[in-house]
UniProtKB/TrEMBL annotation:
<keyword id="KW-0584">Phenylalanine biosynthesis</keyword>
<dbReference type="GO" id="GO:0004664">
    <property type="term" value="F:prephenate dehydratase activity"/>
</dbReference>
<feature type="binding site">
    <location>
        <position position="30"/>
    </location>
    <ligand>
        <name>substrate</name>
    </ligand>
</feature>
<feature type="domain" description="Prephenate dehydratase">
    <location>
        <begin position="108"/>
        <end position="288"/>
    </location>
</feature>
<protein>
    <recommendedName>
        <fullName>Bifunctional chorismate mutase/prephenate dehydratase</fullName>
        <ecNumber>4.2.1.51</ecNumber>
        <ecNumber>5.4.99.5</ecNumber>
    </recommendedName>
</protein>
<keyword id="KW-0963">Cytoplasm</keyword>
<dbReference type="InterPro" id="IPR002701">
    <property type="entry name" value="CM_II_prokaryot"/>
</dbReference>
<comment type="pathway">
    <text>Metabolic intermediate biosynthesis; prephenate biosynthesis; prephenate from chorismate: step 1/1.</text>
</comment>
<feature type="domain" description="Chorismate mutase">
    <location>
        <begin position="3"/>
        <end position="94"/>
    </location>
</feature>
<feature type="binding site">
    <location>
        <position position="50"/>
    </location>
    <ligand>
        <name>substrate</name>
    </ligand>
</feature>
<dbReference type="GO" id="GO:0005737">
    <property type="term" value="C:cytoplasm"/>
</dbReference>
<keyword id="KW-0456">Lyase</keyword>
<dbReference type="InterPro" id="IPR001086">
    <property type="entry name" value="Preph_deHydtase"/>
</dbReference>
<feature type="binding site">
    <location>
        <position position="86"/>
    </location>
    <ligand>
        <name>substrate</name>
    </ligand>
</feature>
<dbReference type="InterPro" id="IPR036979">
    <property type="entry name" value="CM_dom_sf"/>
</dbReference>
<feature type="domain" description="ACT">
    <location>
        <begin position="302"/>
        <end position="379"/>
    </location>
</feature>
<keyword id="KW-0413">Isomerase</keyword>
Amino acid sequence: MSINEELDLNVIREHISKLDQELLTLFAKRRSLTLNVAKSKAHQVRPVRDQQREQELLVRLIKQGKELGLDAHYVTSVFQTIIEDSVLNQQAYLQTLANPNIEMPTVSVAFLGAKGSYSYLASHRYFSRRAEHIIEYGCQSFADILQQVESGHVDYGMLPIENTSSGSINEVYDLLQHTNLSIVGEITQPIEHCLLTAVNTNLSQIKTIYAHGQPFTQCSNFLDKQGDMRIEYCESTAEAMAKVYELQDPTVAVIGSEEGGSLYQLHALEKSIANQTENHSRFILVARKPVDVAEQIPAKTTIILATGQKPGALVECLVVLKNKGINMCKLESRPIQGRPWEEMFYIDVEANLKQIVMQEAIRELNGITNFIKVLGCYPIEHINPTSVPSGALSS
């Protein structure tokens, strides 16, 4: 490359950096305007999302983008992310209004593992919209997390509850039977497993892999192809990453996220090694007191119930929900300790506990079950991307 070409490249990069700064300023200005929208909706009790308007907005932006030479899928991807950010920030604002007593600039949260674990990443992602500072409490087990919250040592606990690849995390469901804590939030965290190493090496040199049990299960297809490798189980992904960094050995690796690994100066030897390309974990947030969910926000309520050993007892409960028009989005069963062959059922429904129809359903369920308890009502955090008519993308 000649000196003139290098100078020209530096000038181009300076222009790009300037444009990036201008874009960030505009993004911040747009976000502040969406919060003004939330303030307006707070008084009018209007839903946060207007998906018809969102779709019309995307179609218009795609058309305008094409006139500027921009690809329709590129415009769609960018503005779906912007819309999701807008919705989540409006929800966070409205929740603050609905729960003024729990607004805190600093929160303390317990999670599994240490810095870099998926629970750590989920905690920071959840509170990035809700608190200025996070006091971190890494724990060695799910039971420790609950104990930290129950004792008042921390404000919140972050618990993984299910994964799209490996399914439900039964230990957490079992612990929820015996706690007085309430579920006050949820978040879905992308799980992007990589094979991480502390030093430059290649895959053929790896003899030992460290990881938490869940990542091993979720990456079983990749591991089955690697031949003779020793598996070392760790209490958390963070512990596994710290171990590999400490060893500085070209024959060892860890399964974890590239983002988390960077906190331990690890780099990705192999990326996207999970069995499923779309791999997500759902986390729940627990606290000592329940929260109120603003009427404008889509809500989810989690209940547990025991029906006893009666034919059709569970079906009878589900019919109550059906007749009330309440959508069930999760059903999980777990054995009741000390009562052989009896099950405790965990049910997630898309409804606000304050709604009359939900209160009526709880009363009816109370009359036909041996035990029922509301574990919590909380905002639905997962934002489905705004759909775009196929014609808008191809025309």
